[in-house]
Amino acid sequence: MEFRGAHILSVQQFNREDVDTIFSVADSMEPYAHRLRMTKVLDGAILGNMFFEPSTRTRVSFGCAFNLLGGEVRETTDVKASSISKGESLYDTARVISGYSDAIVMRHPQVGAVAEFAKASRVPVINGGDGSNEHPSQALLDLYTIRKELHSKGRGIDDMHIAMVGDLKHGRTVHSLSQLLMLYKNIKFTLISPKELRMPEDIVSNLRNAGNQVIETEDMEKGLSDNDTVYLTRIQEERFTTKLEADIYRGRFRLNQAIYTRNCQPNTVIMHPLPRDSRADANELDNDLNQHPNLAIFRQTDNGVLVRMALFALILDVTEQIDDSSSKVNWYTEGRFE
Amino acid sequence: MEFRGAHILSVQQFNREDVDTIFSVADSMEPYAHRLRMTKVLDGAILGNMFFEPSTRTRVSFGCAFNLLGGEVRETTDVKASSISKGESLYDTARVISGYSDAIVMRHPQVGAVAEFAKASRVPVINGGDGSNEHPSQALLDLYTIRKELHSKGRGIDDMHIAMVGDLKHGRTVHSLSQLLMLYKNIKFTLISPKELRMPEDIVSNLRNAGNQVIETEDMEKGLSDNDTVYLTRIQEERFTTKLEADIYRGRFRLNQAIYTRNCQPNTVIMHPLPRDSRADANELDNDLNQHPNLAIFRQTDNGVLVRMALFALILDVTEQIDDSSSKVNWYTEGRFE
Amino acid sequence: MEFRGAHILSVQQFNREDVDTIFSVADSMEPYAHRLRMTKVLDGAILGNMFFEPSTRTRVSFGCAFNLLGGEVRETTDVKASSISKGESLYDTARVISGYSDAIVMRHPQVGAVAEFAKASRVPVINGGDGSNEHPSQALLDLYTIRKELHSKGRGIDDMHIAMVGDLKHGRTVHSLSQLLMLYKNIKFTLISPKELRMPEDIVSNLRNAGNQVIETEDMEKGLSDNDTVYLTRIQEERFTTKLEADIYRGRFRLNQAIYTRNCQPNTVIMHPLPRDSRADANELDNDLNQHPNLAIFRQTDNGVLVRMALFALILDVTEQIDDSSSKVNWYTEGRFE
Lengths: 338, 338, 338
Description:
alpha/beta, Rossmann fold, homotrimer
């Protein structure tokens, strides 16, 4: 795809070469994200960080990524405070807001809202999550993390074995990551979930049709063996009709040090899109793994900044100018990144 | 008036020369607002963007305007989170906040609150809307848009014919725009509204006393003919006692392609302060006019950035230094402004 | 203490030399805070301004302080919008957020939450208030103000007489200020409060054990005489079980011009952590003293910016580079600071 001026709405818009491009730019962002150097390549540019659904983590991550490129961030965090509550169409909101900023990140509770918004926008739009639908930067950072973690162990994404665990029905991140993994070859998916929260059938058959092996199981311990990566998820309580309904499934699949040691290969990378639910009745990923070298969950969020910087740099077409606008960093930056 | 260090609280503080000054500076902001060049003239300055009543659009517009001049923005979006809820006076809030920032924009639900705040502020304050009272930057951007649109058609503001349509009783923007138009000569106002939502009598008589022609009517189609500009408004639901009461008037006056073609002169500019209510039962300005070249509603919001940049530059006295602090823009900026 | 890379969590971590260091750096910030010059020493750095409990004043003060050093600010203002409501631990939040920013300010409703957060943070954390526990930057700005005010009258902190008035039980600021004053010698504390809202016993005995004189009284007029400083506080309504319970104490101790003239020495400095409750039934510090030269309450909040700039500069270790990154200010800055 042509990145210059493009909207980033769905993982489906990428081919394997596009993903390689994004990851290669993300790699080049590391010195800036890790404060070894700073760049002002987007000095003077403004990001409209429009979150019409709450999300501290993703909102701050996008905002920091834009700041780290030298740009400014204007944002909104509340749909009730917006003109949408006065009957304004997404078309109007898009025409107006895109007159203020140079790029827009939008999160919206409704499926398809960001794509509709993007159609009317005069500047590139990145989908920061539209309901249970898409969250492409999350899928990209997940895949980028897998690539990096496996690479450090001398392996690649093709022929990988991955287990996905938990609420695979509602988990937007496992859907998008699966889509993205279809660009690669011969992957073995082990999908571990309660029957009622299985991965949607169309995704499973797509994976199979693309030549991948898919095993669905409720037996977690068996499913955990023989994987390069285990990707855990939270019960998406907010997507259930009632909290009670979610309670049935909460805490049913948990990974901790003992289960990991008993079942996983010693090199298995542990991932989670976060937030993980650490309350006693859920605790899908135990704190006793916090010091484990294969626990990649915080490297995931760190990588999110790299990937988001890369997306901004690509759609605003400044990748070639980043190093020219760079200089050294003078403040305290020790002990930050592994 | 002397702009340096001044508060901008009401359209009543301007004479015609002042308006010309603002518009001339706004014109000079276009290269920066349209990202042809960038300026850092307010690098190091801080705007206190204090919104004690929700407003995404106006808040972000002011924030972007300050960013586009190179300054930083600190803001608040919620009155409940503020010390006002702990019994703090506006005097105290003003004394404190004006110690943090170089200029303040304030929106407040109470009539007169911003003026009271400004009295105690140590830095220039711009009224971003105080209840149903004043919203001077909106009136200025409306008039600036009229001037620009008519100019491109070889006409001026003097001797103009303008129709104002809708909730003229509660519409803060039509009140302020009318006040501002009194600085010009021989304007014909056609005020189209339900009888119960007529323009306040004192404004009507002021307009007449200043030598303008004012026609009040409930007959929209007749009223639309023979105008340079048609200015539509939304039923200001939030100013009615009940939603039911507002429902009586909702959708009574609507402009669409057919009505426009049937009644308006081919050159008539279509304006609306936005948000327009696009729900089926309201729809005061139909989407079938979205591609019409005379639809100026998004040029209005774009112009808002120019006018707000001009106000900041004037009250902080940096108009002469803007171009000296300017440089070229390197990122993707295509297809943004008409 | 070693400031470089340190967390600022409690006043108890400072010795007298540390306080002197902070105040000396704060002094050097004055030209920048007062816009005589600007500095870009933290250009490229990002503050995570994480307010999980509302506070306009403190949040904006910290944000402005970071901006005045040239850095950017990303922030959150709502705990409900955060992953904490999805069961995320403070450990996880800290690991994630500290991957985005170069320093973090955190306010949290729970005692000890900020310290727990700091343990897992990869960047320096400043406690912006944890429930009724600590708010060290407030205590520092209070003491800095006392030092400055008394110095201008030829006196120092040692041997000072200070009266603290109001809700001394719940007032976090009087607790922290008292702790800090234990670093100095031979101070006379007059604690004026309703019996039920007395200063906690452990603080009183600590003060006495450190060799200070402590008088506790309900007789305000008597207690006001013979002081260098009077420090008034608001009834901390939000810390009572019911509003009714708070109402019993509201308005019981008030200072106004007449009471001041009748009881205080002519040089007595008047302080209040703000917000003051100016509603008729409270009015602990009357507006008729607003023009009094000894009223230091707005100099207090102004000083807050200096102290917070100093803390950032110290923990990020840039104090030596501030002046090198400085330049002149070109915009309107008159009539700002006394």
